[in-house]
Amino acid sequence: MAILPICVVPESVLRQKSKKVKLIDGSIQRLIGNMLETMHAISGVGLAAPQVGTLLRVIVVGIPGEEDIVLINPEIVRRKGERLVNEGCLSVPGYFGEVKRAESVRVKGRDLNGKEIRIKASELLAQALEHEIDHLNGVLYIDRLESADKLHKIEPEIAQL
Length: 161
Description:
Distance between the termini: 41 Å
CATH architecture: Alpha-Beta Complex
Number of domains: 1
Largest sheet: 5 strands, antiparallel
Shape: globular
Strand content: 25-35%
Number of strands: 8
CATH class: Alpha Beta
Strand order of the largest sheet: 1-2-3-6-7
Helix content: 10-25%
Number of helices: 2
Radius of gyration: 16 Å
């Protein structure tokens, strides 16, 4: 496996709609393995294929303390409620913003073996699924900000003597 470079704004691949995966073959399985390794290496919570330069509908999510999730051709089939969350993105380094996300979501897709799976999610998992599926549609969290003042630069911590 390999750690892949992360695409960052304004790279055009981040603004394009991804194509459905028609066949889960060795190249897709390698892509997923590399995405998982990359996500863990940079301590991310999720990663979408466009973030590593591949316009395919593939996401991985890794919530600390839980099993990794791989979804091929994921779709949100239901959203419930609304909440404000602080969100960041590996493709928008150095910033975080306040966006509206669902309280819970239902998502369907296929696993690494092509089997259909459905996930009911809330809290961080729901947020991560929405965020990563947005990437597959060329949408970044910064597009969901109500106003520019909801985007904040991450200030580096200054070491104290």
